[in-house]
Amino acid sequence: MRYLTAGESHGKQLTTIVEGVPAQMPLTTQNINESLLRRQKGHGRGKRMQIEKDLVDIAGGVRHGYTLGSPIAMVVKNDDFKHWEDIMGEDPIESDKKLRRTVTSPRPGHADLNGAIKYGHRDMRNILERSSARETAARVAAGAVAKTLLANLGVKIVGYVNEIAGIVAESKPELEMDERIKQSEESPVRTLDEDAAQKMMNAIDQAKKDGDSIGGVCEVRVEGLPAGLGSYVHYDRKLDAKIAFAVQSINAFKGVEFGIGFEAARRNGSEVHDEIIHSEETGFSRRTNNLGGFEGGMTTGMPVVVKGVMKPIPTLYKPLQSVDIESKEVFNASIERSDSCAVPAAAVVMEHVVAFEIAKEILDQFPHDQFPKLKEAFDQYKEEARCF
């Protein structure tokens, strides 16, 4: 299974094509739209989320609520394109007209300058329109297909916020998965700690008042996976490595951890590794889950727990210094759009990119042409792993 996305931030639409989804899997526009609308929520989002109403049009690969086995094409139209058609349209500009809103002053922390140098563009709108986090809507659409597959296999996944601007949510290991999903969805900042939530919102409001931005830490948890997904035999077949790559590829993400992550460097081995236990009911499991559900690049059967670090959004209402690429004069960087904090939305994006990697791994390891046969093989393997 793989996907491609196309489209620019202020262009006509975002397009996602997902290939390799089994035939006969239930899939509706509602499955995709629920995820897209979740991505738009969150305290601290900017005005763009009030302009766009992200809804999908499935343009291929699905018939009467079931996948065909052919590529699935999905389109999310940009409602604001009508105000950008002369700037972002595909037709040549008439010789007597001047292009509006060209960008020659690169923004620190963005892809503007590096992309302009790489592709030779003097108008950096050609860079920023594609490098924008708006593209994550297309990635969420792909992840929603994967989440639907996982849900039909009995695998649950949720993303939430652990930290914003140094305010750390209380860890709640006792929470059941359904309660995590519920609390995350009800929280304006997608955290499981109500006390921390208010402090986080206050910090976001203060950052907005100051013309600044703040970052944080997202966590994704996956339950219902058997031991043995992934492989230890080659570096590029390790599932935790694939997930780390996917998370790191999200706009503004600068680090990934599994389980206790970097904390393992500050503990003794006896305090890090998860002791193996066994029961007739559940089979092999671990007494703890410090390693986040992975050993040797493979799942252990414990919940997969992965964290991602998001830097503050670099587009600020009090812009940082930059240098114009034409005049070489010092300027304050331009403002395209700005969320004072997008960590709650990023938790949704991260949830979906993790879902895609896990679903892809399942399809790599089990018969995948027809969904009923996939489910039968997956369930059989889970039972074999339990009885091992």
From TrEMBL:
Gene Ontology CC annotations of this record: cytosol
GO biological process terms held by the UniProt record: amino acid biosynthetic process; aromatic amino acid family biosynthetic process; chorismate biosynthetic process
Pathway linked to the protein: Metabolic intermediate biosynthesis; chorismate biosynthesis; chorismate from D-erythrose 4-phosphate and phosphoenolpyruvate: step 7/7
Cofactor requirement: FMNH2
Keywords: Amino-acid biosynthesis, Aromatic amino acid biosynthesis, FAD, Flavoprotein, FMN, Lyase, NADP
PROSITE patterns from the UniProt entry: CHORISMATE_SYNTHASE_1, CHORISMATE_SYNTHASE_2, CHORISMATE_SYNTHASE_3
Source organism superkingdom: Bacteria
Record flagged with keyword Ion transport: no
Positions contributing to FMN binding: R130, S131, S132, N251, A252, G296, K311, P312, I313, P314, T315, R337
UniProt cross-references to SUPFAM superfamilies, sorted A to Z: Chorismate synthase, AroC
GO MF annotation terms: chorismate synthase activity; FMN binding
Catalyzed reactions per annotation: 5-O-(1-carboxyvinyl)-3-phosphoshikimate = chorismate + phosphate
Residue numbers binding NADP(+): R39, R45
Enzyme Commission (EC) number: 4.2.3.5
InterPro entries the record matches: Chorismate_synth, Chorismate_synth_AroC_sf, Chorismate_synthase_CS
Record's cofactor remark: Reduced FMN (FMNH(2)).
Subunit text: Homotetramer.
Family: Belongs to the chorismate synthase family.
Function: This reaction introduces a second double bond into the aromatic ring system.
NCBIfam families: aroC, PRK05382.1
Entry protein name: Chorismate synthase
